[in-house]
Amino acid sequence: MSIFDEEKLKLVSGNSNELSILSYDVNSIQRYIFQSSNIKAIMGSSKMIDEFDKEIQNMKEFYVVTAVGGTGMIIASSDREVEVKEMIKDKFYKMVPGGEITISSVRFKRDELINGIKNEKNYKIPADIAGIKFENMDGKNSYSDIFKIISSEMQRQKSLNNPKTPLFEDVQRCELCGVMPASSIYHFADGDLHICSACELKIKKGNEKIREEGYAEELADISLSEMDKNWIGFIKVDINNLGNLYSKIKTSKEFEQKSGEIEDIIQSSINKVVNVFNLRNKYLVPIHGGDDLFMMLPASKVVDIFKTLSSSLSSLSEMGLSFSAGLGMSNVKMPIKFIFESAEALISSAKKCAYASDKNENFVAFKVISSNSIDPVTEDVLYEDEKTKNIYKLGFGMSLSQFFDDLAFVEKLRNQKLIPFLQKTYSCVKDRYEVAGLNVNYFFARSRMEKVIEDPIQYFNKFVLTETGSETDEKKVYESKIPYLLELSRLWG
Ligand SMILES: [Zn+2]
Predict the structure, then answer these.
(1) 388 with 315, same domain?
(2) Residue 390 has pLDDT above 80, yes or no
């Protein structure tokens, strides 16, 4: 079976035996999208990149293999390579003002795009880029071999290009992006701002996007209850072992099919939570590109929404895939860029667990973001003397099943109105292990905790203080899950 569509290859190659695969990638796409904190400008930037991809998909005189999420691959005869590069550049700078793009190209023999690469020595690309190995290119994983070659060339191009931030002296900067010179005054509900022409276009596109998709007009609209006046929920999802899946792909058709399946699962999961929780005009999806998803949601429902979303996303396992998620809520006063970066930090925390695990499991890390001065992933000391040290961790990754077990425990506590007992326990763990044990025992006997967990020793060992190791021979380290459970109950509204 031919790696790329043979008919299409014939059409673009004409008499030439040499073909170029051109690929493009929008530089720092997320930084571009979150350049300004204005929600419409954010949604507009995202839409502008989508529209650019669609414009590339319509370049019918060439063979467009893929163009989605700000990256794409186009095949043309090599004598038109320069022309195609110029076309992509022109379209990009016209449609995505203020953005940057990298375009790279690699030439192949037509036969290699049909039957696979037999001799990798033809490609003088350093083998050490990003750990990509050019071994065993026997045409068996033919599509992924070509994919590796063009992505290593893309990385080489990216390392060469050094985007210069334009320097404008003595001009008023745009008050939204802070980069380009302001060119007009825009009337916002809460006052006038001097903005640049790029941001003006972003806002126009953002308004269109919000109307088309039924998104919230303002952050304040992302609200279902009193709590949502001060808090905003967020969920970020990222697929774990995509590289693994793609490295086994043999044809471009198979690539298209697999990425289509992933896209369908993600889209139907979004649709599901929007319907179940009645989120129309009460949510935003600033990033939704292929395998990457970032949603902003009513904080009061974010845990319940996550339950539904993650159960729907679990069907990824049928494709041999799993996901990592960053979950949380943030004070509404935080800049959106900061909320996004916190979600990113939580995702990498969850991904650390995914990489360390040998099972194809889903992972999550969560946090309540109330101040913009700290990393969402923290470890802190509750008590320390020469013999013992009590610590706690927040924002660390865990398996989804662990998360739901702990959530079920918090639910039991809540149903029995026993959350205050957690707070009482919290004051006990700021003491030496043995003393904490005595105090927790004492309070346990005088509470209704046996309705939730029968045995005080089990409660103590599982949640209050668990030995996690020792710093020296003499000094033991105990971890407390109590601050974590309190954080979870806070997140759950
Ligand atoms: Zn601007």
Answers:
(1) no
(2) yes
Those residues whose beta carbon sits under 5 angstroms from the ion ligand 1 are 174, 176-177, 180, 196, 199
Q: With beta carbons less than 8 A apart as the criterion, state whether 109 and 127 touch.
A: no
333/273 same-domain check: yes
**Which residues on neighbouring strands pair with residue 64, listed in sequence order?**
74
Q: How large is the C-alpha radius of gyration of the chain? A: 26
**Average pLDDT, rounded, for the chain:** 90
Give the model confidence (pLDDT) of 142-166 as tens digits: 888 888 888 888 988 888 876 555 6
What pLDDT is stored for residue 124 in this prediction? 57
Q: How far apart are CA 296 and CA 235, in angstroms?
A: 7
- 103 and 225 in a single domain? The answer is no
Same domain, 385 and 303: no
Q: What is the DSSP letter of 17?
A: S
pLDDT of residue 164: 59
Q: How many Å lie between the centroid of ligand 1 and the Cα of residue 358?
A: 46
Q: Tell me how far the alpha carbon of residue 48 lies from the centroid of ligand 1, in angstroms.
A: 14
Q: How many C-beta neighbours within 10 Å does residue 482 have?
A: 22
Strands (E), 69-183: 71-77, 101-109
